[in-house]
Queue: 2 jobs
Job 1
Amino acid sequence: MTSTQLKTSALALLKKFYGYDSFRPGQFEVIEAVCSGRDAVVIMPTGGGKSICYQMPALLNDGCVVVVSPLIALMQDQVQALMANGIPAVAINSNRSDFDNRSDIDAAHAGRIKIIYLSPERLIADIDQWLTRLNICLFAIDEAHCISQWGHDFRKVYTQLSALKSKFPNIPIMALTATADRLTRDDISRQLGLKDPLRWLGSFNRPNLSLKVITGATSRKKIQTVQGLTRRYPNDSGIVYTLSRKNAESANEQLNRLGIRSTVYHAGLTPSQRQKAQSLFTNGQVQVVCATIAFGMGIDKSNIRWVVHFNLPANIESYYQEIGRAGRDGLPAETVLFYSYQDVVLRRGLIEKSESALQQIFTEKLTQMQRYAEAQVCRRRILMSYFGEEMSEDCHNCDVCHNPPERFDGTILAQKAISAALRTDQHIGIFTMVDILRGSARAEIRRLGYDHLKTYGVGRDLPSADWNFYIQQMVQLGVFEPDMEHNNVLKTTPLAMRIVRGQEALQLTRFVARERVARKAKAPTLPSLGGGTSKELFEYLKRVRMRFASQSGIAPYMVLSDKSLQDMAIRRPRSLDELLDVHGIGEYKAKRFGEIFIAAIEDFLND
Ligand code: ADP
Ligand code: ZN
């Protein structure tokens, strides 16, 4: 088959099974490669469309595709999504009975199954068993970064996947991941023994995600931010990521107390509790999940409108993958990262305790994360340059772009702060320093005699939020060094001495109250929906979808995505033919759900 012929068939199948009109960049290229027997490494960001890369070869070929995926909990979702498109798929795993597994394996042997999901453990265990008698056209290794120690999610069992190439030398392998770090990328093809693989490195830019970092917020402020987001997007959901289980639990309790439907997800839950949490979320029964990093791998829920990090993530890869769970439908989505220097200290401590041979790499990655959070230039440019992509213009969708920093001569402020540190023998942390500078009447301050210091009250003219911000900046700029072993009291550095003696000046970035920023940034509205009625119809169709989904026991987003419903609300199809023009509706879905939605549109328009 020529490339053009292959493309024609692939496009027809894409329309028929998925309802899409064209491939995203890279999809066809890697499909073509594996169809000609070549290995492939596919690096695309979360939401980039990796699934179709490995599913389509199953539709184009006689045999089936075996997909290795580390998270059993997600397999059922993926199988359901495929079945909803009319593609026969199964997941063979330990969550199911031997009987069920066996009968699915029989069906696969009979050639009735196109896609088989397996855990890596299962693949290794069964590699000499039923797999050898199967007509396999492709092995797909999802979350392939798990094979690399350099990555952020190493799984030992993944290293055994190197056996695939020796046992099945003639079957192409496609490795897929959303992790872009270079060390990991190279490790993947080396460890899997891939032969001259086609490499596709997709663009990591997700312009629809707004980026925002808030420094030094209180936990109350963090909860308020989440509350604001839930109000702004009452019909959509979001994720709160925290550093520890305890933080996740406490965030969840506070949100519940405010009447927000939320739940927790972390490594301390049993598998069934986790599954429960996940399904509450995907079914839209809770609006918020408070999670540690364990949550969200592979979640394809298109109406996640926001992601908030309560703490600094360990590295840029994790951060980007986590915020990437929002806005997978391509519509505007918001992300907020709360940053405090404490988190850096805490994470450093964790790394040191880990006694891992990779401490140095982890520390380096943490430092890069910290630099991002502290940056005064377009944040998206930092991210893209981290992932090796050039961006020649500012993004206009991050907090720095919205609010370009204004610099000023902060030498006098710094001298005041440094003098407070020196006059207290460098025994104070940031909060006491602010109290002294502002002349606080706190009993503690008086007890220690700090109210007699010459520096007491010299910074009264600035609110404490501003002082906090400036002193943190001074830390970042190397004026002070927090003593991690002694409650992070601020030690002066040689730079501080030069400043206080007037030998050197210090430029600071002007503090801008975050509330002002928040008010300026408008809530994204649905773009292409003109007039109130399309929006009303969209909301109506969402209710229809919810009812149908709960009746048939599948997740709403698997019936149809928000994007499909929006497109439907604009096009208002009155027949099955017209329905097929709607984004994301293939023949199978049109047949299965079509009449319900056409009837609903008719009802709505006749009302
Ligand atoms: P990934 O696995 O890379 O995170 P998915 O494969 O889950 O991403 O795809 C993300 C979303 O994009 C899904 O809803 C998918 O149906 C959609 N999608 C994938 N390919 C296309 C395409 N060619 N046209 C339109 N939508 C697509
Ligand atoms: Zn920007």
Job 2
Amino acid sequence: MSEQGFFTEATSAEVVISRNAKAKDARLAEVMAILTRHLHAAVKEIEPTEAEWFAAIQFLTATGHMCTDWRQEYILLSDVLGVSMLVDAINNRKPSGASESTVLGPFHVTDAPELPMGADICLDQKGEPMLVRGVIRSTDGTPLAGAKIDVWQANDEGFYDVQQKGIQPDFNLRGVFRTGPDGSYWFKAVKPKFYPIPDDGPVGKLLAALGRHPYRPAHLHYIVEAPAHGRLVTHIFDPDDPYIGSDAVFGVKESLLAKFDQITDPGEIAQAGFDRPFFRVDHDFVLAPA
Ligand code: BEZ
Ligand code: FE
């Protein structure tokens, strides 16, 4: 007989946990014990029919089948369950005053071009012009020279370049910038638009069944790095976006709402180097010392 006796409905979790007692890795044993306890408690509370349990297995199977080298349906599942943001929060607790993080998302590329400060990352002249400016500082207020700012965003129709190969130029709306001695950065782009997370798979079906939309409010992605400071993976959001209060992946934080000011003054338009009204977005970032 096992250490805990035979399996019964009442003792199910403890019987399974005790069977794992010889696990070689203590962390694995801890994680499996917690998962087993919570999973058995959930099953006891739900009391699924066998058909319902099989539907759950089929959902997970379809989620696996949807995965390829470039489509990770399990990450999307984690995203829409709020688990990606929870893991992000646990691993990126910042000291007071430091900028907050949010999810990386699947559309970052590691080989975006390094551009001169002020460059226009919009390579196809489509959309409403935008000037983004700010300063990278340390938590003590010192401007950070030599900070690397990696930015990427969707276009005015809500698509990233990697989703529209042959339609958008490669590396459209992406760039890497490095700050000078005053820690400031600025670049030109176009006002991004809200877009749906990939919703043609099981996760999209789940959202629809739950009466949820798949949209993320318009945002710009940033990875900010500076010598002797912690890396910041974050976004800034358009606060006026229709989906700002219901991001499909829960990535919005109050501190990440930027200001998108529409500039119509001809002098300011000329000074910024545009030929028509533009949006000006000012957003500083504060990095915590490593
Ligand atoms: C994104 O913002 O690029 C993203 C994040 C999570 C899921 C899908 C897209
Ligand atoms: Fe995004």
